[in-house]
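Cross-posting from the modeling subforum.

Setting up a comparison between two proteins and wanted a second pair of eyes on the formatting. Protein 1 (sequence, then structure tokens):
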Amino acid sequence: MDSGSPYQWLRELRWESQGNPISLLIDCAKCVATGSIKNADIGLEYISQISSPEGNAVQRMVTYFSEALGYRIIKHLPGVYKSLNSSKTSLSLDDTLVHKYFYELCPFLKFSSMITNQAIVEAMESEQVVHIIDLHCCEPAQWIDLLLTLKKRQGGPPHLKITGIHERKEVLDQMNFHLTTEAGNLDFPFQFYPIVSKLEEVDFENLPVKTGDALAITCVLQLHSLLATDDEMVGKISPAAAASMKLQRAVHMGQRTFAEWLERDMINAYILSPDSALSPLSFGASPKMGMFLNAMQKLKPKLVVITEQESNLNESNLMERIYRALYFYSALFDCLDSTVMRNSVERQKLESMLLAKQIKNIIACEGVDRKERHEKLEKWIRRLEMAGFVKVPLSYNRRIEAKNLLQEYSPRYKFREENDCLLVCWSDRPLFSVSAWSFRR
């Protein structure tokens, strides 16, 4: 780079190797966080030259993180952002497909379903009518496995009901077809109730739960989305003041270059729109979570099993989120790089459509739009205990089978027990937690 190069600022940064994409990404993130948009733009352009979605694990991950930073910049230009996203729909057929890729290419969800099913079998050992509410019902393999296990139960299988909740009717239709077909083949007493609903809009009072049903509720990688908070309610200036300031910025825009206006607008955005997460354990800061747990508790479930990402990404500070997201997702990209072929189309779709979408939401979004608010097990334990639930220790049955499942993928996959819950790890880095709960009677 010569002294007149637009990349000259890169020479002045504290990191030494300009070929290190993670170091450059962090410096670009700092530029975005402080409103230095021109420098961020230069850095992101340089990242695009040294990273690729077809490269190694680091290059692929940095590609999606840099894309997320770009989206964060343009989100402060509502017209530009909406025009770039006008043809995109919130739900597509590919959403379910990439979920299946994640289920198959990584052992995390299979491990979760194996441990969950064992907990259900043990909790419902003497029950005649077992009712499961699946709060994100999209993977038939778990419940087919449960049908096969319960079919062998001494004294005969229970009558099994599954209420499946999902945003898309066609997903539930497929679940209904697969499960009722398998139950018919096994001559298993079974009913499936489809409920088309978003998680936060589930009407617990009108679910088809009958007196005498032994109830189990499962929630896989969904509960954290209820931690999203509304910036309109906390820390915002009045609408009149906001309109006045927007008008002033519009008047002065003609006196500055576009880059200067954007940089100034970004700084204003950070000053006027702080994140409203507050204390992650405060029901007042996440009212949806408080109401949801309260409604769930009223059903008096015999068992609740929750699977969540083991990471602390419910932070208001952008740089804290980026550092922690890099720590979490670097392990995910590493395990995929170690266990799945580089040219796998399924891996490419999983990373570009699922992981990239999560990263974009973590970095580019704030307030109620930021759904990927992962928290660690210790916080979930405190939150659920505060809501009136008590832990159910996960038994040792099927742990050998679960361990063998992980080893089939890679010896670097491990699990460990913590606070009567299980953590699934890549090497020694915990990535997902499985915990079981019951209603405090």
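Protein 2 (same layout):
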Amino acid sequence: MSDIYRKCQDCGTFTLNEDYCQQCGAIINTQLKRKLQREHQAIEREKRAQSEKPNAVTLFFQNAMNHSNIFIRLIVRFFYSIWVIVLAIGSFIAFLIGYIAA
């Protein structure tokens, strides 16, 4: 194992082959610091994704598909299938424009 001297950014002491400073306890290994930051960011992204609510259109379709009247459920399923087709066509057009522009 090679001898690696790392300088602490907080207190300025040099430490041999350690990830944490022996004086103040701060992280001095940059790879470990980046790994911990990435893990923290992933946890924050996951929390934000769980806390986001669906948009109004999706919420409307979800509630209407569980309606007690079968006639309303059939109408909603018909319009939902049209909605999905419109979104598919729109995303395909966006893909083509992006592909052509690049």
